[in-house]
Amino acid sequence: MPNFSTSIKNLHFDFPVFNASGILGATEGEIKRVLESDAGAVVIKSVTLEKRPGNSGIRFYWEDIGSINSMGLPNQGVDYYCSLAERLTKYNKPVILSIAGFKKDDYKKLIVKADKVPFSAIEVNLSCPNIEGKGIFAYDFNTMFRLLNALRKKTKKTLGVKLPPYTQREQIKEVVANFRKIGIDFITTMNTFPLGTFIDWKKESMRINPNMGIGGLAGNAVKPIALSQVILFRYFSEGKLPVIAVGGISSAQDIYEFILAGASAVQIGTALLKKGTNIFTQLKRDLRGLLMEKKVKKLSDKVGRLKFLS
Ligand code: RRO
Fold first, then answer.
1. How confident is the model at residue 254 (pLDDT cuts 50, 70, 90)?
2. Catalytic option among 31, 111, 124, 128
3. How far apart are the CA of 20 and the centre of ligand 1, in A?
4. 183 Cα distance to chain centroid
5. Which residues of 175-192 are buried (b: 16+ CB within 10 A; e: fewer)?
6. What is the DSSP letter of 40?
7. Does residue 71 line the site of ligand 1, with CB under 6 A?
8. Burial of 43 by CB count in 10 Å (0-12 exposed, 13-18 middle, 19+ buried)?
9. C-alpha separations of 64 from 71, 206, 218, 270, 280 in Å
10. Residue whose CA is closest, atom 8 of ligand 1?
């Protein structure tokens, strides 16, 4: 029987496949559903200081090629999730809290609160595409590096950063160099591609309401982009900055590709939304079959083992 386990610092994943932040993980019931499934961990929806209803109207749409969303950070507020942390330890799976702010101070306050309760790790979301009038922190390098420096000093917990897709190799190189200096423990790549849309040609209208109908693109359409982010983060960090991959993963083959690309774990977004938590059972069964067929005994032996053509 192949061994699936991987780890990033204190995060031990018996099965390194779990939900992407924002997909199931916004309420106690959803978080428990993920933890009670075959998922190897849970990531809580990005939390803000105050409870938020998020954007209004139709804010999610999907078709086979992918999905778009403009949720606008709906969540119960950080205190709600902190009050759950102790109860979630009984599942013996990593519980990762994602935090999101509108200004630098928000992140500092959030991390102080998260530090005090038994979450396994904190994923700093610097890449939400859907807040009107606010830029994406992770595209403003000076602000991002200064902020992360300050956050690193406020917690000894395992600290990761959720990043948006980058379009130039040099950007990834610079992020890696600075994150290694700051002491970031892992990155999650990638958040949704910030500007995506679908049009209803019959109605001659957009598919979702907020922000002119343009939101974060995810699912099958972004898989090639996500793969190249993982490969380049692995390459520039020489494997020293662990990567959690997300973006268009819906099958065991997808998981295997992302592991070869350099991911230590993967998150499922759009496919989880479509299929529910049974997808983890299916992925586990299919990945077991794939590894047996390829005679791979330990999944972790394959992390970053992609062959480059000369
Ligand atoms: O809530 C959202 O609109 C949202 C967030 Br915070 C995020 O990080 N990525 C995304 O696609 N949507």
1. very high
2. 128
3. 10
4. 19
5. bbebbeebebbbbbbbbb
6. S
7. yes
8. buried
9. 20, 17, 11, 10, 20
10. 128
Mean pLDDT, all residues of the chain:
97
Ligand 1, atom 5, residue with closest C-alpha: 128
Rounded Cα–Cα distance for residues 116 and 155 (Å): 9
Q: What pLDDT digit, counting tens, does each position of 121-166 carry?
A: 999 999 999 987 778 999 999 999 999 999 999 999 999 999 999 9
What does the block give as tokens for 244?
């959690």
| pTM of the complete model | 0.98
Distance of alpha carbon 47 from alpha carbon 290, whole angstroms: 36
Q: Say how many Å lie between the CA of residue 72 and the centre of ligand 1.
A: 6
7 pairs with which residues across the strands?
12
The answer to whether 240 touches 180, Cβ cutoff 8 Å, is yes
Residue 125 CA, closest ligand 1 atom number: 8
Amino acid of residue 35: L
Nearest in space to 22 (alpha carbons), one of 188, 169, 156, 167: 188
User: Which atom of ligand 1 is closest in space to residue 216's alpha carbon?
Assistant: 11
Residue (of 255, 192, 258) closest to 221 by Cα position? 192
